[in-house]
TrEMBL record:
The gene is gabD. One of its GO terms (cellular component) is cytosol. GO terms for biological process: gamma-aminobutyric acid catabolic process. This is NAD-dependent succinate-semialdehyde dehydrogenase. Keywords: Oxidoreductase. GO terms for molecular function: succinate-semialdehyde dehydrogenase (NAD+) activity. Pfam families: Aldedh. The active site is at E256.
Length: 484
């Protein structure tokens, strides 16, 4: 369990239309701690009818919320931001308990999540339109931006707070209302955010959190015509399914999906900086992020030195329960996640790769896994073709720049890419050639509320954060005034 300063942040009911609700059937989904399997609590397993009712009450809340001034909505979001920050320790404790990440990372994620609320509290006041010189006499053309309406978000377990505020903050700032379905593994963080939204005075029905079977809730969100926008973060497989299911009612959709990030180390790189960047990029959240380095390409002449340094830094990572001070690597989210990591390692070793750090389940048992480095990995191995989503760093070799770029781009994904070089001409060449929505240059950490986060190819559609993020929640209307 976890100790909270404010125990009322521990919520086990859905937040719908300003009320805390159980499923009428009494059905529940238990929530457990991935570090030790202990049961933390439970949340309702809402029915199709109950989720439909939540959509309908959100729709009734829309007119009053969209009529409020942007400044008024901004003040409500600012109050929410202040409450998230002032309750950061409790929110981090809840997150570590249900997701497993170290407290330092959970606390960092709460600050990151809050930064989206702060950012969009301001961006909502800058949703500008246009006037356009008309070609017809006596005519005036005005372009306005209007809130899309009822929006739904389906969010993953790996960032239980930030993936919610990255969607809800721009939606609410733009004048939309939102229903969130958090991952069944990590609903408690979402419900604590709802508790704080209620305290911030965000009106009933404007921000709602529903829990239950993903297929049941997904069906309501994708097929109910009242829902005009879906924003999803998760696997490409589910994103594809949601995109298909939204076609029936032509909904707008934002998709932040899987990745297979290349991390390229050129011979002119600062190798120590590259090692630090690779550790940060690969092992954040125990490798369970969509922007983790999934393939590390090292130029031949510096391969041995980089591999030795990376293996040493990887072996120094401390593994344990995320609530223990100093722990840097928590458990994976599930046994299935561990099995996928083992499958990738076994396939690589069977096809000629070598272990130079870790490689096995951790002595702590459960879903703890040793931070791992493999060398002599080749592009045809599973670990290079699929998103591992675990603490395994596969090292591949290349001779020349063009080969590195070709190998890096040889994937259906295009979310993040990274490279280390101190050659300015090379930096501009490679940054332009990489097929990714996000490129980290001499850094392994790229996530920020002020920057547009999103992918190309099969890593998704749309951008979150930055001035672009609010565009996902507005419609453009053109007013043509004649007879003047
Ligand atoms: N882009 C990203 O940040 C993330 C990518 N992933 C990728 O997805 C893989 C599997 O992880 P999962 O958590 O199982 O991802 P997932 O895509 O299955 O789940 C993500 C969210 O979608 C919901 N969901 C699942 N099936 C649904 C459906 N039919 N209708 C509506 N909602 C549905 C889940 O309940 C969860 O809230 C990971 O190994 C990783 O490769 C996972 C999480 C985040
Ligand atoms: O889904 C994810 O993995 C996050 O989007 C990564 S980040 O925003 O925390 O970098």
């Amino acid at each position: 369990m976890f100790k909270l300063i404010d125990k009322s942040l521990f919520r086990q009911q859905c937040y719908i239309n300003g009320k805390w609700e159980n499923a009428r059937s009494g059905a529940i989904i238990t929530v457990s701690n991935p570090a030790d399997g202990s049961v933390l609590g439970s949340v309702p397993d809402m029915s199709h009818e109950e989720v439909t009712a939540a959509v309908e009450t959100a729709a009734t809340a829309l007119p009053a919320w969209r009529r409020r001034t942007a400044a008024d909505r901004s003040q409500a979001l600012r109050r929410w931001y202040d409450l998230v920050i002032s309750n950061q320790a409790d929110l981090a404790a809840i997150m570590t308990a249900e997701q497993g990440k170290p407290l330092t990372e959970s606390s960092g994620e709460i600050a990151y999540a809050a930064s989206f609320i702060e950012w969009f509290a301001e961006e909502g006041k800058r949703v500008y339109g246009d006037t356009i010189p008309a070609q017809q006499p006596g005519t005036r053309i005005v372009v306005t931006k209007e809130p899309i309406g009822v929006c739904a978000a389906i969010t993953p377990w790996n960032f239980p707070a930030a993936m919610i505020t990255r969607k809800a903050a721009p939606a609410l700032a733009a004048g939309c209302v939102m229903l969130v379905k958090p991952a069944s593994q990590t609903p408690l963080t979402a419900l604590a955010l709802a508790e704080l939204a209620q305290r911030a005075g965000i009106p009933k029905g404007v921000f709602n959190v529903v829990t239950g079977q993903s297929s049941v809730i997904g069906r309501v969100f994708t097929q109910n015509p009242l829902v005009r926008k879906i924003s999803f973060t998760g696997s490409t497989e589910i994103g594809r399914r949601l995109m298909r299911d939204c076609a029936g009612t032509i909904k707008k959709i934002s998709l932040e999906l899987g990745g297979n990030a290349p991390f390229i180390v050129f011979d002119d790189a600062d190798l120590d900086a590259a090692v630090r960047g690779a550790i940060a990029c690969k092992f954040r959240n125990s490798g369970q992020t969509c922007v983790c380095a999934n393939r590390i390409f090292v130029q031949e002449s510096v391969y041995a030195e980089f591999a030795e340094k990376l293996a040493s830094a990887t072996q120094a990572l401390t593994v344990g329960n995320g609530s223990t001070p100093g722990v840097e690597q928590g458990p994976l989210i599930s046994q299935a996640a561990v099995e996928k990591v083992e499958q990738h390692i076994e396939d690589a070793l069977a096809n000629g790769a070598n272990l130079i750090a870790g490689g096995q389940r951790h002595a702590l048992g459960g879903t703890f896994f040793q931070p791992t480095v493999l060398c002599n990995v080749s592009p045809d191995m599973l670990i290079a073709k699929e998103e591992t989503f675990g603490p395994v760093a596969p090292l591949l070799r290349f001779e020349v720049e063009g080969e590195a770029v070709r190998l890096a781009n040889d994937t259906e994904f295009g979310l993040a890419a990274y490279f280390y070089s101190r050659d300015q001409a090379r930096v501009w060449r490679v940054a332009g050639a990489l097929e990714a929505g996000i490129v980290g240059i001499n850094t392994g950490l790229v996530s920020s509320a002020v920057a547009p986060f999103g992918g190309v190819k099969q890593s998704g559609i749309g951008r979150e954060g930055s001035k672009y993020g609010i565009e996902e929640y507005v419609e453009t209307k053109y007013l043509c005034m004649g007879g003047l």
